Amino acid sequence: MAEVEETLKRIQSHKGVIGTVVVNAEGIPIRTTLDNSTTVQYAGLLHQLTMKAKSTVRDIDPQNDLTFLRIRSKKHEIMVAPDKEYLLIVIQNPCE
Amino acid sequence: MEPVNMESMGHPEIYPLVLTTKTQEIFNCRIDEDVTDEQPYKLINKVDIFEDLRNRAAVSDFHPVKKIVQEYPGNELLLVYDKDFKYGLNFYLIGTEEGKENYLNPPEVPEEQEEYKEHIPEDVYVYKPPVSKPWVSLGSEKEIEEESVMESTKQITYMISQKRSEFGAPVKFSDQNASSVKDAYIECTAYPDKNFTLKQLEKDVSMQVIPQIKDTSTQTEWTYPKNATTQYYPREFSEEEKETLKQSKPLVDFLNNASISVEIALQQNEIMNTFIDDWKYLAEEEGTFGDKTDTHLKEYQSFTDLHSPTEKMITCVSWHPTIYGLIAVSVAVRLSFEDRVYFSGKLLLQPSLILFWSFSDPIHPQLMLESPDDIFCFKFCPSDPNIIAGGCINGQIVLWDITAHADRIENIKAGDSRSKKATLKPMFLLEPESNTEAMYIRHCAVSSIESGHKKVITDIHWLSDTFEINRMGSVFENRSGICCQLVTCSADCTICFWDIRPQKPLTPQTTEKKKEESIEIPFDVPSTFLHLDLSWKPLSKIRLSKGETSLDYCPTRISLNEDHLLYKTEDKTLTQSKIVKTGEMNPYHNLESGMANLLKPIDDFCTKFFVGTEDGEVIYTDWKMKKDSETGRLMPKKPVSIHTIHDGTVHTVQRSPFYNDIILTVGGWNMAIWKEGVMTGPLLQSCCAPKMYTSGHWSLTRPGVFYIGREDGYIDIWDLLEKTHEPAQSQNICITMITYIKPWIFSAKQQFIAIADYYGTLRILEIPWTLSRPSTNEMTSVNHYFEREVKHLEYVEQRKNIREQEKKEMELEMEKKKI
């Protein structure tokens, strides 16, 4: 249990990180550092996007798989690390 | 003779009669008198009729109906006047009781039947849809048959095929000219047919009206049926579920694996921003350097005091911190020391003033603050702009409190029209408030003559309201939230710290002394600083001594660490919130309240400050006193560094509004930029200018720009990013020496610079866009410049050491050679 906290804390303490969300396979958030409504929004939307991205990659090449998804926007960058059962979402503001 | 009745008309009981006038009189049935339209009948007794019959026998009118009367069962007979001669004669008799009853009480049945019949047509119309009936032919079928087109003959069909044996055999085609072989073809030549030369003049067309029908079709895609749901609340886990999940091993493994790649991605972003458009960032910087259009300061307004008898010069200029368009100017007579002494008698009669000018009225000053002697420097109190502290030529500090007149200066608009009205009234009728002529406001308090400065006060500053100091120079936090301490430096080689709060009396004697010395003050002077008047002593005095023997340093300007924050005009909202609002308890009127608190000392506060002297030295010293081990007295610490850079009086020592540790010093014929902490020398030192520099100021919005005024009335505008060896621009402002420069920001688009000259004229010029707006990254560029200069100085130091080393080695070699 402490490991989980430690890892998440380490990620959160990086420069520019705004929030971290851990989501299960169905899109329900497990752990988060953001407020509830934002978490739910991020979890739902990014879960769907990750599924779509995964299916896209596999459609093109069935032996391929999605390992990491980075979305760069004007204001920040959203990083999604997918897994069979979980999803780790990190939002970072890269500009100084 | 049988009586005639009206049986033929359906009324057998009616017997028409003629009644003569005589008969009418007898029976009281005279027409229009006894029998009228309303009552056309009369009941007549049988007996009377019999009497009449006996009297008049055959002459009686009732003779024809004698038999009826005799047979009449009842006693009274009904006689009806027949006005319309319905039954032929003017009266008729009803012969039966039944008839009488019927006449008198006509049955109502027929009326009801009539009414009933009238109601039926008013019923609601009930819609009956058309009922389909079998087709009834009216002969239209024949017409249709005639007009329709049908094939008259049966069509013949031909089927041509090859012999079965030739099916599938290879085919050989050859060409043949059709005209050469006989009967190879049959042609049907065209010939003119008379039938088709006829022109049709009439045509039969049939039409039928039908309802409009439209048929369209479209192809829809129907992939597959799917279920859809609607959700109102997001699905979430409860706390316990979250806890159990947290401890599950798959989550731990997942996080360990995922965090690796996530951290790589995070670090990538931290290292470099890969999405920067380099071209875009490059282009912006170049745009500003070459832009030289409209870089001159434009004259906006100028103020001169026309009422003063002697020639005056402006010694200090200060913009009002909050009110737009209000600027205060201190004037002093333009005389040398000997002349002052010579004319001292005359000078006493003239008031020494600080004038408040407003943009709306260039001729009349709005307020005039009176002081005992010429003011050489003054400042508005940052926490309350109604308090002004000024330093006199005789060494006194003067305090003004203009809270009472604050509304006058706040609402300065269209002052000209009001002043015209005022002059019409005779003087004795004018009330003091409506008099728009500037009022002389007497000072509130002056410092004690004996214990203050002995010579002219050259610079005065309010200490920031974030800290305060005590006698030892130790710094404490300031709980009162207002600026309550001042620092002054004077030509008598001392720097004094003053506190405007009432000092705790050390001995009871002082209170008695105060009572003795209480002077009658005029009624219109506020008593804010009454406790200080004439008895104000400095909190601590620091003497800048050069050593035991030689003369001391004579400070002309000082610059404290927190100064630039006080006068930073960009963040107006911050300063406004600090300024006391009228109506609330003004802390300056209740200065004793903050005294008793025990204050917390602030550690690691930089108590060092820069001083510019009359001889051109720039001194970096400390105000904290230390206890001398031998005498036990409080001694000022030795200065940290002293540099003699300038060839004349240093009149500007100023921190940059953007960098806390960059100081500009201007004096003599050159200027220098220093960085606090770098003690080896100035970062930049300009070469000697052709004309003496007499004033200087940093630009408030551009980090690399500052203004320097010269003695010939020119302003040099330096831009560190453009050129560092000479000013970027030079502009002529006036004909005489510029004594003070003070820029001010009013809005993002409007910036003014106030330039005061030796002849007493204050000019307000507008700073053009290029000089007021910083270019992008200007602050970082200027920062880089300063850092480069610091490194340059370090390098020079290193080189010095190396040179010395080399020198020593060379000398050793020389000596060796000698030997």
TrEMBL record, chain A:
Gene3D superfamilies for the chain: Dynein light chain 2a, cytoplasmic
GO biological process terms held by the UniProt record: microtubule-based movement
GO MF annotation terms: dynein intermediate chain binding
Pfam families: Robl_LC7 (PF03259)
Main localization category: cytoplasm
Signal peptide range: none
InterPro entries assigned to the protein according to its UniProt record, in alphabetical order: DYNLRB1/2 (IPR016561), Roadblock/LAMTOR2_dom (IPR004942)
Any single GO CC term annotated in Swiss-Prot or TrEMBL for this entry: cytoplasm
Keyword terms, alphabetized: Cytoplasm, Cytoskeleton, Dynein, Microtubule, Motor protein, Transport
Ranges of residues in domain Roadblock/LAMTOR2: 4-92
Subcellular location: Cytoplasm, Cytoskeleton
Similarity comment: family membership: Belongs to the GAMAD family.
Subunit annotation: Homodimer. The cytoplasmic dynein 1 complex consists of two catalytic heavy chains (HCs) and a number of non-catalytic subunits presented by intermediate chains (ICs), light intermediate chains (LICs) and light chains (LCs); the composition seems to vary in respect to the IC, LIC and LC composition. The heavy chain homodimer serves as a scaffold for the probable homodimeric assembly of the respective non-catalytic subunits. The ICs and LICs bind directly to the HC dimer and the LCs assemble on the IC dimer.
Function of the protein: Acts as one of several non-catalytic accessory components of the cytoplasmic dynein 1 complex that are thought to be involved in linking dynein to cargos and to adapter proteins that regulate dynein function. Cytoplasmic dynein 1 acts as a motor for the intracellular retrograde motility of vesicles and organelles along microtubules.
Stated name of the protein: Dynein light chain roadblock
Organism field: Aotus nancymaae (Ma's night monkey)
Phylogenetic classification of the source organism: Eukaryota, Metazoa, Chordata, Craniata, Vertebrata
Gene: DYNLRB2
TrEMBL record, chain B:
Cellular localisation: Cytoplasm
Tagged with keyword Nucleus: no
GO molecular function: dynein heavy chain binding; dynein light chain binding
A GO-annotated cellular component: inner dynein arm
GO biological process, one term: cilium movement involved in cell motility
Keyword Coiled coil: yes
Subunit note: Interacts with ACTR2; this interaction reduces binding of the Arp2/3 complex to the VCA domain of nucleation promoting factors. Part of the multisubunit axonemal dynein complex formed at least of two heavy chains and a number of intermediate and light chains. Found in a associated with the catalytic heavy chain DNAH2, the intermediate chain DNAI4, and the light chain DYNLT1.
Origin species: Aotus nancymaae (Ma's night monkey)
InterPro entries, per the entry: Dynein_IC, WD40/YVTN_repeat-like_dom_sf, WD40_repeat_dom_sf, WD40_rpt
Gene3D superfamilies registered for this protein in UniProt: YVTN repeat-like/Quinoprotein amine dehydrogenase (2.130.10.10)
Chain's role: Acts as a negative regulator of cell migration, invasion, and metastasis downstream of p53/TP53, through inhibition of Arp2/3 complex-mediated actin polymerization. Via its association with the multisubunit axonemal dynein complex, is potentially involved in the regulation of cilia function. May play a role in osteogenesis of dental tissue-derived mesenchymal stem cells.
Name of the protein: Dynein axonemal intermediate chain 3
Keywords assigned by UniProt, alphabetized: Coiled coil, Cytoplasm, Repeat, WD repeat
